[in-house]
Amino acid sequence: MSPRYFLPSSSYISLTTITLILFYAPSLISALWPLPASYQHGQNIVWVAPDLAFQYSIRNQSAAQPSLDKSNSTLNTATSYLLVQAALQRAHQRLLNDSFVPWKFHPRNSDFEPARNATRTYIRTVVIQQNETDSASVLKPLAHEVNESYTLSLTTDGAVEITAISSIGILRALDTFTQLFYQHSADSAVYCPNAPVSIVDAPKFAHRGLNMDVARNYYPPSFIMHAIDALAWNKFNRLHLHATDAQSWPLDIPALPELSANGPYRKGLSYSRQELADIQEYGMYRGVEVVVEIDMPGHTSVIALAYPDLITAYNIQPNWSTYANEPPSGSLKLNSSAVYDFLHTLWEDLLPRLAPYSAYFHTGGDELNVNTYSLDDTVKSNQTTILQPLLQKFVDFNHDYVRAAGMTPIVWEEMLLDWNLTLGSDVIVQTWLSDESVAKTVAKGHKVLAGNYNYWVPLPPLPSRYLILPITVTNRLSVPRLWPRLLGRPAAHPSRDSISLLPLQRLLYPTP
After folding, report:
1. Which residues contact 445 (CB under 8 A, 6 or more apart)?
2. How far apart are CA 293 and CA 172, in angstroms?
3. CA–CA separation, 340 vs 382, rounded Å?
4. Prediction pTM value
5. What is the tens place of the pLDDT at every residue in 279-338?
6. Burial of residue 99 (number of CB atoms within 10 Å: 0-12, 13-18, 19+)
7. In what order do the strands lie in the sheet with 486-488?
8. Are 359 and 282 a contacting pair, CB within 8 Å?
9. Which of 12, 147, 411, 505 maximizes the CB count within 10 A of its CB?
10. How far is residue 285's CA from residue 278's CA, in Å, rounded to a whole number?
């Protein structure tokens, strides 16, 4: 197995560890982020022994650990046990090689470091116990299927114990554990100034994610892996890749080679079959499930560069705004047998490749413009009474393929709230237009990923336990009715409006 699944994707680790702390932490007593549900600490110093060892066991293990179904994968078989082993290697690397001196945490010229000649108490062994065998879905869980809670204790005599229900809980605990330590400036030894430590932690939301638009702005696989590192260190568990849009199609579909031959901004700016699998497996090893979106039937004009007969109202100028929210205009035709043939080929190629790594697939559905279909030779109407049943058939067709691949569909809110489609009870609705949309979605009986385009990314200072942004729902539903169906509030970032890696880089790795 490639070392990259074990170790961070680059030296961003030191930069991120430092800058996220400075950016977010209002108190400088520790470098913990996000703040655990319960955190108690003292003021004694313990050191990390150079020969630090981890002792990992699973209580009453009687069954084989869940493994990656590699029937559709060219990668090495992964198990939840290997996930923990990889996390232990990364934790060892971060503690002994990537810790930092907390200069900015203290006044200039202050003597904040432990005396070099003082007697040292060392941490020599970290005892880790997983209290239950992992569920079969641990490598690609639906929301609420994996218990991510953990406990962590560090005594003044250097004894460390970590307990968790699942392997993912252990990953979260190890990220917290490494945040307790600093490097000494004189001899590069690593110490914790806050023993004893007692932490009990669990997330408030089951879905904690970032929406990354890689269609409007291409990001190299290595950068996406950097983003996954940042998400994992902050205990996020989903990365939503908005993979295609009107501006580009940066995704290789071997069964439809013309898409990536003509759809990217230029040749080479697309993700190969192997690169996409690498990104997903990299996320899996860090407890970050990578969810792919192919937005349709709107936002698909780029397909015309490869298959022009499938798209209606392509790149209408100058009055593009009559047919789209942004240029270039164009949508998949709604009543075309050729479109359904295209979709069949697309899903048969793509979905089996994604299924080993993710329980979800996003079929899009936002900003569908009715006027495009007055130019559609298979429809010739912009009347919603005519378009709605055609759209219902279109979405049902796609969701049947998603379910057949063993995944759960996600759609944007318009499919439910504007078009009033009948969606399966399993379908997750992602809102983005307002907080009121959350209440409306829950009132219709669907689980919801709450979003609001007025907010792009989490803003400091954030509350503890991984809450992204406050949700305001002023009518229709009380909080007790809303909460069970609110899976989380994914953060978005403005890559649809940025022109380089720098804006996203600054948001993921902020500097003071």
Report:
1. 425
2. 26
3. 21
4. 0.87
5. 999 999 999 999 999 999 999 999 999 999 999 999 999 999 999 999 999 999 999 999
6. buried
7. 486-488, 448-449, 428-430, 408-412, 360-362, 289-294, 238-244, 209-213, 491-492
8. no
9. 411
10. 11
